[in-house]
C-alpha cells in the first residue's frame, strides 16, 4: 500500500495527518522560522537555509522575509529567483519555478485542493496538483496561482490576478479569473530598449 506522502505527490486524495508528512512539515517550519529571523546582513546563512529547504535551488535566489511554505522539499527554483515580502508556496504537490522569475509582494502558489463534496472533505481528505512557472516571468503583487496551473515563458501576470488556467508564452495576463490581455511584441522591446538607453545617458 502506498504511503500518504506518495498519494499526495501523485495528486491523489491523501490525509495530511501522517507521521512522515508531519516530519517534513515540521522540518520546513523550523527552517522557515529561522530564515525569517535572519537579517539583511546574513546572506550566507540565508543561502544555506534555502539550499536545505528547497528540493533544488539555483544561483542568485532571494526570498524577502517573511516567506512561508508547507514543505519546501517539493519546490524547485531556478537561477535569479526573487520574491518580495509575504510569499506563500503551499507545495503539497510539486512546484517548479524557472530562471529569472520575479514575484511581487504577497504572491501565493497554492497546489492544495479540497473535495467539493462536504462529506468527503470533512473526512480530512485533500489533494494537490502541481504548479509550473517558466523562465523570465514577472508575477505582480497579490497574485494567486491555483492548483494545476502552468505559466509559460516570458510572461507578465498583472497584480491581483487569480490564475485558474494555464497561461501561454510571451503574453501579459490579468484579472480574476486571469486571462490573456495581449501578446508581448516588438514594440515592447523597442520601448524598453529606448528607456534603458535614457538610463545610461543620464
Q: Could you characterize what this model shows?
A:
- With 202 residues, this protein is an alpha/beta fold.
- It has a single domain, classed as UDP N-Acetylglucosamine Acyltransferase, domain 1 (3 Solenoid), CATH 2.160.10.10.
- Helix content is 27%, strand content 27%.
- The protein has helices at residues 4-9, 19-36, 43-53, 118-121, 186-201; strands at residues 14-15, 56-57, 62-63, 67-69, 75-77, 82-83, 87-90, 95-97, 102-103, 108-110, 112-113, 125-128, 131-133, 138-139, 144-145, 150-151, 156-157, 162-163, 171-174, 179-183.
- The chain has a seven-stranded mixed beta sheet with strand order 3-6-9-14-17-19-20, with no helix packed on it. The protein has a five-stranded parallel beta sheet with strand order 2-5-8-13-16, with no helix packed on it.
- Strand 19 and strand 20 (179-183) form a beta hairpin.
- It starts with a helix and ends with a helix.
- The relative contact order is 0.10.
- The model has no long low-confidence stretch (mean pLDDT 97).
Amino acid at each position: 500500500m502506498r504511503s500518504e506522502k506518495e498519494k499526495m505527490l501523485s495528486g491523489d486524495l491523501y490525509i495530511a495527518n501522517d507521521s512522515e508528512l508531519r516530519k517534513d512539515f515540521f522540518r520546513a517550519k523550523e527552517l522557515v522560522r529561522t530564515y525569517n529571523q535572519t537579517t539583511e546582513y546574513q546572506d550566507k546563512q540565508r543561502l544555506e537555509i534555502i539550499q536545505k529547504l528547497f528540493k533544488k535551488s539555483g544561483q542568485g535566489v532571494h526570498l524577502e522575509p517573511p516567506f512561508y511554505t508547507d514543505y519546501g522539499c517539493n519546490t524547485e527554483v531556478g537561477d535569479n529567483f526573487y520574491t518580495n515580502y509575504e510569499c506563500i508556496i503551499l507545495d503539497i504537490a510539486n512546484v517548479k519555478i524557472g530562471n529569472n522569475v520575479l514575484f511581487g509582494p504577497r504572491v501565493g502558489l497554492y497546489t492544495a485542493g479540497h473535495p467539493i463534496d462536504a462529506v468527503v472533505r470533512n473526512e480530512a481528505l485533500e489533494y494537490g496538483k502541481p504548479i509550473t512557472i517558466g523562465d523570465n516571468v514577472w508575477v505582480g503583487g497579490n497574485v494567486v496561482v491555483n492548483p494545476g496551473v502552468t505559466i509559460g515563458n516570458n510572461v507578465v501576470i498583472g497584480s491581483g490576478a487569480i490564475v485558474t488556467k494555464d497561461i501561454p508564452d510571451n503574453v501579459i495576463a490579468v484579472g480574476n479569473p486571469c486571462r490573456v490581455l495581449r501578446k508581448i511584441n516588438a514594440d515592447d522591446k523597442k520601448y524598453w530598449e529606448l528607456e534603458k538607453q535614457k538610463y545610461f545617458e543620464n
